[in-house]
Design brief:
Layout: E1 4-11, E2 25-32, E3 37-41, H1 48-56, E4 63-68, E5 71-72, E6 83-86, H2 98-107, H3 113-127, H4 142-154, E7 161-165, H5 173-190, E8 194-198, H6 201-207, E9 210-215, E10 218-223, H7 225-230, H8 235-240, E11 247-250, E12 252-254, E13 257-260, E14 263-265, E15 278-282, E16 287-290, E17 294-303, E18 308-314, E19 317-323, E20 333-338, E21 344-347, E22 350-351
Parallel strand pairs: 3-8, 3-9, 6-7, 7-8
Antiparallel strand pairs: 1-2, 1-4, 4-5, 9-10, 11-15, 12-13, 13-14, 15-21, 16-20, 17-18, 17-20, 18-19, 21-22
Helix pairs in contact: 2-3, 2-4, 3-4, 4-5
Length: about 350
């Protein structure tokens, strides 16, 4: 396995880029520790697949370096980087048995049959496919085919990194949670460096120890799932992670305070110096309804089982709150209160309050 370092990385598909808009990746500096579980998370077109292809050697970056354990591999082809990759669609040989599919990456490298059998049986047991080892792969269900594809990536014990590119795209929703759990379990057992690319926040947050959130070719935040939820560094992270996403409310900064609908809002800490458009960010989980706070009128109530999502109007702004237990009815008058420790100012999208110490 390997520590992976991305240094001053940029990439443009335009041979003569003229500005930031021409770059699919913009100034990425990143380090992943040996044996960690990481996710690249972001919407389609944000650059995550481009970054994965650069790490794998399918693309050479316009600028910067890729290092495996401090060795520069920027210009090495994929076969010289010692990586394994699992794609959206299962890459297996239908005419081979499950056993031979799992054995193929090892046999292709001249590994002796005794070692092949040991590794195949170990991975098959982890994947819970031991009972189908002698079946032809063509007859497997899509989720089992993807299990075998994952196994082909994990069967070698000498790879620098295992990369997963949207591996659950073709899997039925009711089976996805099983494969997510299995992949997390596999990482804990084999401790390989793994990078998981997805646009699905649930997949990223349940798999990874560290999540890299990308937007428009840039990294907007790196952190644990808890850090991304608790303190989004950018309003995009607040929107993209969480269901529903973070409330982003227009505000004015006057005399060192933030005013929403002419009401001073208590924030987590001091507002940093700067200029730009300002907003207040607070997640629905940290908005409460009661007799005190901002006067509001309930405009919509969505009962989703475990709780209700209440939308309330404060002036022209809509604020969402998650309510446990009985929720107010549409049209009811109420008051909203924000948890001060979870309420922050954002300036031009970026967090602009100092965390309380």
């Amino acid at each position: 396995m390997a520590k992976i370092t991305l240094s001053d990385l940029k990439h443009s598909y335009n041979p003569q880029p003229k500005g930031p808009a021409d770059y699919a990746l913009k100034e990425i500096d990143l380090e992943w520790s040996d044996g960690g579980a990481y996710a690249l998370l972001g919407p389609s077109g944000c650059g995550k697949s481009t970054l994965l292809n650069i790490i794998s050697g399918l693309l050479t970056p316009s600028n910067g370096r890729i290092l495996f354990d401090d060795k520069d591999v920027t210009h090495l082809p994929p076969n010289a980087r010692n990586i394994a990759q699992v794609f959206q669609f299962p890459v297996i040989y239908d005419t081979m048995t499950v056993y031979d599919n799992l054995a193929f990456p090892l046999r292709n490298r001249g590994v002796d049959e005794a070692t092949v059998r040991t590794r195949v049986m170990a991975i098959a047991e982890m994947l819970e496919v031991t009972d189908m080892l002698h079946r032809k792969a063509a007859g497997l269900s899509p989720d089992n085919k993807q299990k075998i594809s994952m196994g082909r990536g994990l069967v070698r014990d000498d790879v620098n990194v295992v990369m997963f590119d949207e591996p659950l795209t073709v899997i039925d929703p009711h089976l996805k949670w099983k494969l997510r759990s299995k992949l997390k379990e596999l990482h804990q057992k084999v401790r390989a460096t793994m990078i998981y690319v997805t646009h699905d926040q649930t997949e990223a947050l349940t798999f990874a120890d560290q999540v890299v959130v990308m937007q428009d070719g840039e990294i907007v935040q790196i952190g644990t799932p808890v850090e991304l939820f608790e303190r989004p560094a950018h309003t995009f992270v607040g929107h993209f992670i969480g269901s529903p996403g973070m409330n982003v409310l227009p505000c004015e900064v006057r005399n060192g305070g933030a005013f929403f609908e002419n009401t001073l809002i208590t924030l987590e800490g001091e507002i940093t110096q700067g200029s730009g458009a300002t907003q207040i960010g607070v997640r629905p989980e940290f908005v409460s309804l009661g007799d005190h706070g901002l006067p509001a009128v309930v405009s919509k109530v969505s009962d989703i089982g475990r709780h209700a999502v209440v939308e309330a109007k404060v002036g022209n702004a809509t604020v969402k709150a998650i309510v446990e237990g009985e929720a107010p009815v549409q049209g009811a008058a109420t008051h909203l209160a924000f948890d001060p420790e979870k309420t922050r100012l954002y300036r031009d999208g970026w967090i602009a309050t100092r965390a309380a110490t």
